[in-house]
Amino acid sequence: MVGVDLPLTVERHIVATFAWGDDARVPAHGDLPNGYYFRPEGDDLFLMGPLHPEPTVDPDAFDERVGADETERLGSAVIRRAPSLRHATSRGGWASLYDVSPDWQPVIGEIAPGVFVDAGTSGHGFKLAPALGAHIADLLTGADADRGLEQFHPRRFERSGALDAGFGEARILG
Ligand SMILES: Cc1cc2nc3c(=O)[nH]c(=O)nc-3n(C[C@H](O)[C@H](O)[C@H](O)COP(=O)(O)OP(=O)(O)OC[C@H]3O[C@@H](n4cnc5c(N)ncnc54)[C@H](O)[C@@H]3O)c2cc1C
After folding, report:
1. CA 87 / ligand 1 centre spacing (Å)
2. Residue-range domains of the chain with CATH
């Protein structure tokens, strides 16, 4: 409506859950070489997801289920890191969408007079929200917003100002 084309794409990402096998317990971790994140989910389960980019999809038509092959890939990866989990069993999972910016950091700022954007959180928006939320509220209310917010403006991509965060392909860790 304001003639601004945000540089965002949409990727399908999965979360797979597993029941711990026997007494094995492993703490939350990210495994860069094996390409996954991992954390306990309640007492009985742990969950995992991939760290790398995925192909773009049509946000109005994508598979919300997790395939057996996808579960198998994550399960095999964690067993390489933590062989004690070899008796874990799949408990299903889900798939949803990441709104991804070119550098996997959010796009935040005023894009037309009185029109603000806060999107493109690239699969790690919950983590960033506590730090960014108060500053974004200041931006919207015209208070003295933190000048550090400027680095997230979408115009950074026109100026080759991509933010350097994350670890290799694992940009959601940045
Ligand atoms: C599978 C998966 C796992 C994730 N895991 C993590 C994690 O471990 N840690 C982490 O930090 N982040 C994680 N994320 C990312 C996190 O969920 C997002 O970054 C965050 O939810 C983005 O918040 P948002 O408010 O920008 O957008 P959203 O949460 O998508 O909220 C946008 C809202 O706008 C509404 N809306 C859309 N269009 C319109 C319209 N036209 N009119 C009115 N309302 C509209 C939508 O219904 C929605 O409620 C994960 C995401 C996925 C998909």
Report:
1. 33
2. 9-97 (3.30.9.10), 107-157 (no CATH)
